[in-house]
Amino acid sequence: MGRRRFTVLAAACLLAAGSPAALPSPAGEPSPVPGATWDAAGYEDRVLGFRVERPPPPWEHREWNGNWAGPLQAVVAFADPTGALLSVHARDAGDRTLEECAEDIARYLHLAVPAPGDVQPLEVSGEPGLSFPSTGDAQDDSRPYHAAVVVTRKEGVCYALAAFADGKERTPKLSRILLERFRLLPEGDFRRARPPLDVGGPGWRTRGGVAEHAFVGARIHLGPAWRLALDPRIPTGMALPSLNLESRFLGATLRIQAVALEGRTWEQVEAAAMAAFRALYIPPEKETRIRYAVAGGTATLSWWTARRRPGDGGERRRFVLCGTMRGQERLVILEIQHPRARDPRVPVAIADALERLRILDALERTALVQELSGRPDEQAFVGEGEFVRGGAWTSTAHRIVWRKPSPLWSFLPRGMMSEPGETLAVLQTEEDGTNARLAHVETLPSDTKGTVHQRVLEVFRVLFPGMSASKTVASSLGSRDSLRTDLQGSLDGIPLRVTLITTVPVSRTVYALVGVSRTEAPSVAALDAAIRGLRFQVDAIPGARRTPRGWEDPGHGFRVLVPPGPFRAEARPVEFAAAGGTVLEFESAGERLVVAAREWPLGEPELEAAAVERVLSILRPPGAAGKGHGAGEEVEGTLAGLPSRDRVLPGSPAIRIARMRVGGVLFVVGASSPAGGDAPPALSWFRFLE
């Protein structure tokens, strides 16, 4: 076979089989794939965790164009003037073994599946691997082409190094050229040593990588590219249930919302949803209709090139997909944002996610609501002068405790709001949009309880126009005398009741509660239950503080009790997490304890790993890794009477680090002892609060 003819045929086969990415041909041009770069020496992909150096001339980078076969995949290829090809393929390995990866990559490259006798073990960049020769038929020629393939696997990613030539005697040498230039990076954003944890929150949960949202009425297998994302927001009217996904690799977000028909037609609800999209975005520069496979059917979405309106950040979103699909008496609303126009993995990842999406029927959704309502409340948050724990929001600054009616409700505390204004907290349930907002209002010396109430009422007349107001009556809020007015009307065709309660001025401060509910009895009863959970405290509520024997942190839910006698306590910078976390160190008679804690709603493995390394860095002797310390051994243990996963590092000093998730909080608690052993006494100083 002639050299030019072989080059064309092999390239065509690669395109049909592997669907590689569109990589830039000029050296140094930025890659269109986030987390990947070209430089003079070669290509590096920090998402999938590998690097390949450029072979010397006459080898040249080969640009491939084609559709991607999966949301997480990379292809790098080089060619020489003889028509020989070298290519590196990185793919999501899933649960496949190394041998199964070899079979998968052979089919992916349209090669013959290797026979057991042809497979040879070898080491690839420090990891176990295997190699095999193979052949494939050119698509428009009866003569075969030859390949030598090397495969390895690490932390959920399969890597294949393939050398192609028109004579099998050349392929072993070509394979060595590629193998010498390939290496695995110490870590990759996608590579992970363990599957995502089973976590949950108000009305949602993940189990075995499957996310379910009771109020949206949806279930989706997250797959390798997606994870759950929290979406703090302040509801002004009805709070639509929302299941939010994000891809940290691709910079894409997927929001799945649902709204009940409430007696309206499908067309009316769909029109309202599209009007909301158009109000959110500047009129699109381009709009295309695209059909996606969803839940065994199809959904047609509008593909916009658009920007968010000023006041919403003004950030340019190069692509926005907006659309609706009909569920069982509920309209499912899809909004997808992905900012990278040239990343070929993004549209494939979106299609992959939508193919995994399933809309629950009424019985399934009701069963899920009932199951989740009986789970322990794991919402957690710690901010300045406030925290959420154990089903209650506590404001130490305002001496307020507000308890939820059930775990299906969620708090939006002030510290999670971008522009809170006078709002202190919002308590909401997404089942029917019921929500209550608590704010504080500073009064003037001339104000009376009536004038304050009327002033706040006028504000909400503007926010909810066209509603009729009831007579203002005496009421009670959190055991304090108050005034109450109810407004009734509709929003987007849904009959609503808006409740305004203001407390009697005390020390020139008035607390105003605004509740929004449907006019149906269950929704009204839900709002009343939320209001009854509010209490104003007479005495001060203590926050995190040092005690005579250690430390107490009500927000994170723990205390440290150091044995009697002199001890040292020190707060450390929270380098492993954002604000809201804490790192504390205690020492008494040579025994040391380090406690790292922060809210952990989604259980990201990288956050746990960072916290463990932070604690370990404090406990290890300065200037050295510690005599006799290695990576340590992973064992099952207990922390304050509860099961934990521990790392034990014998040596001098002996170190043990326990970690667990309790009540939505990640705890990483480490102790060291100069006496040795695998159970440093300082671990017993740690306690969980009730």
Name its key features.
690 residues, alpha+beta, eight-stranded antiparallel beta sheet, seven-stranded antiparallel beta sheet, 9 helices, 17% helix, disordered N terminus
Topology, please?
Elements: H1 3-18, E1 36-38, E2 42-45, E3 50-53, E4 60-61, E5 73-79, E6 85-92, H2 98-108, E7 120-124, E8 127-137, E9 144-154, E10 157-165, H3 171-181, E11 182-184, E12 200-201, E13 204-207, E14 210-213, E15 218-221, E16 227-228, E17 242-247, E18 252-260, H4 266-280, E19 286-294, E20 297-307, E21 316-326, E22 330-338, H5 345-356, E23 357-359, H6 362-373, E24 381-383, E25 386-389, E26 392-395, E27 400-403, E28 410-413, E29 423-428, E30 435-442, H7 449-463, E31 468-469, E32 473-477, E33 480-491, E34 494-503, E35 509-518, H8 521-532, E36 534-536, E37 545-547, E38 550-553, E39 558-561, E40 568-572, E41 582-588, E42 591-599, H9 605-619, E43 633-639, E44 642-649, E45 654-662, E46 665-673, E47 686-688
Antiparallel strand pairs: 1-2, 2-3, 3-11, 4-5, 5-6, 6-10, 7-8, 8-9, 9-10, 12-13, 13-14, 14-15, 15-23, 16-17, 17-18, 18-22, 19-20, 20-21, 21-22, 24-25, 25-26, 26-27, 27-36, 28-29, 29-30, 30-35, 31-33, 32-33, 33-34, 34-35, 37-38, 38-39, 39-47, 40-41, 41-42, 42-46, 43-44, 44-45, 45-46
Describe the protein in words.
The chain is 17% helix and 41% strand. It is α+β, with helices and mostly antiparallel strands. Strands 28, 29, 30, 31, 32, 33, 34 and 35 form an eight-stranded antiparallel beta sheet that branches. The protein has a seven-stranded antiparallel beta sheet with strand order 4-5-6-10-9-8-7, with helices on both faces. A hairpin with a 6-residue loop joins strand 29 and strand 30. The chain starts with a helix and ends with a strand. The N terminus is likely disordered.
